[in-house]
Every structure is written in structure tokens, then in C-alpha cells.
Amino acid sequence: MTDAAAGTLASRVAGKDTGSASVYSSVYPGELSAPPLRVRLATAEEFRDAAASAARAQREWARLPAPVRGQVVANIGRLVARNKEALSRTVTRDIGKPIAEARGEVQEIIDTCDFFLGEGRRLYGQTVPSEMPDKQLFTFRNPVGVVAVVTAGNFPVAVPSWYIVPALLCGNGVVWKPAEYAAASAHSFYELLVRAGLPEGLLNLVYADGEQTFAGLDLALGEGLVGKVGFTGSTEVGRRIGELCGRHLQSPCLELGGKNPMVVAPSADLDLAVEGALFSGFGSAGQRCTSLGTVIVHESVHDAFVERFAAAVSAAPVGDPTREVVYGPLLAPKFAERYETYLDWIGAHHTVHGSSAVGRITAADPRAGFVGDPEDGLYYHPVVVDGVRPDDDLFRQETFGPIVGVTTYRTLEEAIELGNLPGYGLSAAIYTRDPQEVFGFRTGNGAGMLSVNNSTSGAEAHLPFGGNGLSGNGSRQSGMWVLDQFTRWQSMNWDHSGRLQKAQMDVDHPVAELDFDLPA
């Protein structure tokens, strides 16, 4: 699969290397001058072939008892735990994620496996009472067949595990299309997955660009080879995938972007709120779907909060992701180019805090306390933009990078309205000591995930993860809830009465005196 000397990776379909479309050069964003990793990209037809391979292997895989499949999930967890440090360092070297966050991401795979190994013994159906005598009703979870998983590279191993692990547990085959710029992380994770006891061809790794992936999905769906599509990425691409799946009468699992608000109430612990805003706004360089978009601060504590937040951001260590920093480089050149367009949205009515400059960190525009040498990497100054307005692009649009807006509110109702206004609905947070505000915020905010006195970022393997509105189609990952994405319910009735009993027609109804009245 890998020619280490040449620094080339290839897709893996039915146990063989493939990829005949073109070659992608993946650069390390912390050191652009380093030799790039070459990635052989696959064609639409090769994507379809991967789905066919998964479909062939899936039939036998689904016949294995679910507890046995759960043991394979346990094996995945043990292999990842054994290789935790190596995989973490690959993630850091691949996309520039700080090593502490990379270790946390790899731990999330282990936690996911720990949870789902037990679900192999809990893929419960139900025995349902019938309205007829001598008749039994049952429900069963059946695998969907083949799951096509398309993931972004900001969480190159944890998010794929949210799809792949439960999909395999439920008896499905998988085609995984990771982000090209995170190919090394995907390769390493794939190597661990296939050594856990999976039959050859059940899990296929396909590197492909967006258009070939889309065309490959269309082919595979049209031939009935894919029963579910899971996608994590931008809202724009999610719309296209949703439309494609709809044409084939499929409902995808879409985990999209976010413009996640954090409300800071008058009673909030401001130091705690600043700590949460710093982590959720600037951890991973703001390149999470759950990253903080706008802090909505009560006008009575606005000045105090901004003063503390600006100081914390200004002091945050930025730089070499192998060291102790809040964030490292942006993921890839295309994200740096896009981020610079967001900086153009800063207007005259805004006040900027957080660093000595705006834009890329260079010798000409240095940042105090930078860790390492910024000249050869995609390192950017953190930006806090105070005074954002509801009609600003900075307020309404997702800004994938180290930039956070601040605005004010007077009433909780206004804060809720502001939080919902951009139309995303992934994650939201409130800092308050008032239980009434907590539950008022919970009732009014439309996000799929809420935090109280905690950041907008952070997920646990046994909780549902997902959003609404522009953030997704209501599907959920993680925990027992994701099982509904990778199984389909089948009902069965078993009539052992020896005669044909017709539902709704041959039902016995007890005789009741419904016109009876007690004496006055």
C-alpha cells in the first residue's frame, strides 16, 4: 500500500493497491518546504469497485453473530491503544494538530470501541404484543449493507471511527474516503483496522478528489451497492450529497458545519467563560465544526469579559504543534486561502484584539511568544473581533480558522434569537449560575448539543453527536443512537393459531357499558 522510499500512498480495494486518476501532493502545514507525501487518487469507477468489494464481503460478515463482531471492535480498540502514541504523532505530523489534542483524538477511538464492543450483545429488537390470540410480533435490526463514509481531515481518525466502528458492528461493509490532505493519518488507522480480524475486502480505503467521489457515489448508489452514506464536512457539500442520496431514495447521515454561539450571562464566572472561549475558539486553530463562532455577552459584563478574553488570547502560545501550544498551523493551503477571505470581513465598526497583527505570522508580522519558526508554516494570528452585528458576514457565516466574534445582548430572549440567527444548529453553550437561564436557553436554542459552563467543543463516545439546520439533517452519531443510521428495522409476525387472522378485522372487542352513569 505504501512505497515509503517514494513517499506514496495508494487506495486499498479488495486487498489490492489502486488509484489511477491522478497524484495529489499532501504537504505538512507546519513545514511547507518538507517533501510532500504523494497520494494516488482513485477514479469514480474505482470507488464503485470498492463498494462492490465491500458488498461481496458483507454477506458473510453479517452472518457472524453480533457478539463476535463486537470482539473485532474490541480488537480495534486494543490495537489503537497499543499504537496510541505512534498514531497521535502521525496525526500531528499530518495536519499540524497539537500533540495533546491528537492524543485526545486517538483516545476517542479507544472510547468508541469500548462502548460499541458491548453493543454487539445489545443489538436488541423487541417482542411486541399482538391484538390477535396465538400470534407473536417481533422486530429486528438488520444491517443496511454497505456504508460509504466520506470524512474531513480536521479529525482524521476520531470522526471516521464514529462511522466505521458502529457500521462494522452492525454487520455492514465500509468504503472510507478520507480527506486527501490527511492521507497519512487515514493510512495508519486503516492499517490498524484491517488487522483486527476483518475479512479482506470488507473495509476499503479510497483516496479520491471531490468530483470523482461524487461520481463514484452516484454509480454505487445507482447499482444498489451502497445502503447508507455518512458525510462529515461543509454544509455546501452536504447539500449536494443530500440531493444525490435523495434521488436514490437514500437518507444520508450528514454532520456539517457550525456557527456555534456561547452566551455569557451576568452571573457567569468570567474566568471560566474565558477559559472555555479560548479552548473552543482557538483549539485546533478554530478548525472544528464545534468551534466557537460568536460570544454573546450580556452588556453588563461585556467590557470585563472582553478585557480578560483579549488578554488570554494574546498570551496563548501558538506554533510548533509537537510542543505545548493552543494551536498550530492551518490544515492545508486551501484552508489558509479561504481563511484570508474571512479576514476581509473585518470592518471599520469592529474592534480587533488578540495579537499584534491580523493574518499570517511572519518575520514582518511577528507574534510575541511564538513557539518555533513561523516562516515555513501556515501559522496565523488569533483574532477576536468585538462589535460584530447580526448582519455581518462574520456573524452569520462559518469562519473555519482562529477568529471569534463578540456581540452583546440585554435579555435572554435576545441572546437565544442571536444564537439561532445564522441558521446552524450544531453546538451552543451558556455560562451562568441561574438554573432558569439554563432551561430557558435549552428550550429556545436549536442546537443538537448544548453545554452549560463548558465549551462548545467536546464530545463523549456515548452521547449523540450531530446538528440541525445548516449543521445537519438531524441524524446522530455516537452512542446507541447511531445504530439507527447503520441498521434498518424489520418486523415479523408469526401466527401459530392454525387459521388466517386478519388484523383490524378479526379482533375481539370486550363488551363494555359505556353509557353507564353513577346515581346522582
Automatic annotation (TrEMBL):
Annotated PROSITE patterns: ALDEHYDE_DEHYDR_GLU (PS00687)
GO molecular function: aldehyde dehydrogenase (NAD+) activity
InterPro entries: Ald_DH/histidinol_DH, Ald_DH_C, Ald_DH_CS_GLU, Ald_DH_N, Aldehyde_DH_dom, ALDH7A1-like
Keyword Oxidoreductase: yes
Keywords from the named record: NAD, Oxidoreductase
The enzyme's E.C. designation: 1.2.1.3
All copies of domain Aldehyde dehydrogenase, residue ranges: 37-491
Active site: E255
Similarity comment text for this entry: Belongs to the aldehyde dehydrogenase family.
Subunit note: Homotetramer.
Name this polypeptide is given: aldehyde dehydrogenase (NAD(+))
Source organism of the structure: Allonocardiopsis opalescens
Lineage: Bacteria, Bacillati, Actinomycetota, Actinomycetes, Streptosporangiales
